[in-house]
Amino acid sequence: MEKLYRIIIVLSIAICFAGFAGDKTGAQPKTAVRTTPTPKPPATRKPAKDSVKPTSKTTAANSTAKRDERSAKTAANFNPTPVAAEQIIVAATASQIRQQPKNKSAQLSLVKLGKLLPVSEKNAAWYRVEYAEGKSGWISKTIVKDYEIERRDDIYREITDKYFKGKTLDFATAAEVSDFLRTARVLVKADSLKADLSLRRLRVLTAALKAIPFGKGEQFPYTNFLKANEKDVVYSEPSAEWLVRSEVYWELRNKYTALPIAEEIAWEAAQNPIPGECEGDVNCQLYVLRATDGEYLNLYPNGKYSKKALSNITDLLEPIVADLNGKSVYTLPNDISDRAEFNRFLTELRAIISKMSDAAKTKTLQQINQLDEGK
User: Fold this and answer.
1) How many CA atoms lie within 13 A of 277 on its CB side?
2) Tens of pLDDT along 201-228?
3) By CB neighbour count within 10 A (0-12 exposed, 13-18 middle, 19+ buried), where does 367 fall?
4) What pTM was estimated for this model as a whole?
5) Which of 74, 107, 129, 137 could cross-link 117 (Cys pair, CB 3.0–4.6 Å)?
6) What is the CATH number of the domain that holds 142?
């Protein structure tokens, strides 16, 4: 009986265990299914032309090759490529920075002639550059040059030559070229090029001053330009115009006196107008002669322009000598100090012209002697 009782207990435990296992197994599908709806398959679309699969390996190869060729051409002409440590220099005035590498793209800024710009990207026709701190845009390759410090002198010379081909420059262009040359003359290495760029700067500065409209010197942008160049310019009241100071020319000539270009600088200094007006004041006339053509002949008595300088002096003295008898146009000095100045000018001019080998000097010396006797 006891044995039967144990069997019944074992069978009961087995039945209970089997029921528990069945309940646990049946609960799992309910947990996995949850209540999430089954997503619908995407709507059927017509594939794009480029995504249609070729029907054969040959067709696939040809399609891929054509697509690669198109991509290469596009990349070469439009897609920018990164550039490391490259610089360009702006080679045109009023150069535009654009938002996109297109001629009709919006203008972001203007950059001045000679500005160095770091390049970050480029394509066949444009450079992406940083034109200000944190600001970048695109500039056309047609208005810049690659900048290499080893070729610095050649690059600055090439840029400058473009603006000295006989054409008349408007004020804005002349002013920008003048500013460029003021910096370039310091950056180049060769003394001969420093002197050349310095002389050209004075020439283009003169062009800018001549382009200032009458009576507009106190208006923008002319007043800013005159302020920036105030050490080099002077205003002539009688002619109502701005001039380059002659002293700037002579100082430049003295700085490069050992170079062949020194004589060219001296000649331009001699032909540079002096502010003011002499009218009939003989002392004033003699001062102008001594400070211009007379000074050139003092330095180069038999120089390249000596004949022209002598002719200028002779032409200016002729009407003064012709008026000695009537004294109706020109006034000779009466004051002691003025007469001393008059005598000094005649003495200096006589000594300068006497050093010349040109036979035409005889007439000029006679004129000086007549003035000396007619005082």
Assistant:
1) 7
2) 999 999 999 999 999 999 999 999 999 9
3) buried
4) 0.76
5) 129
6) 2.30.30.40
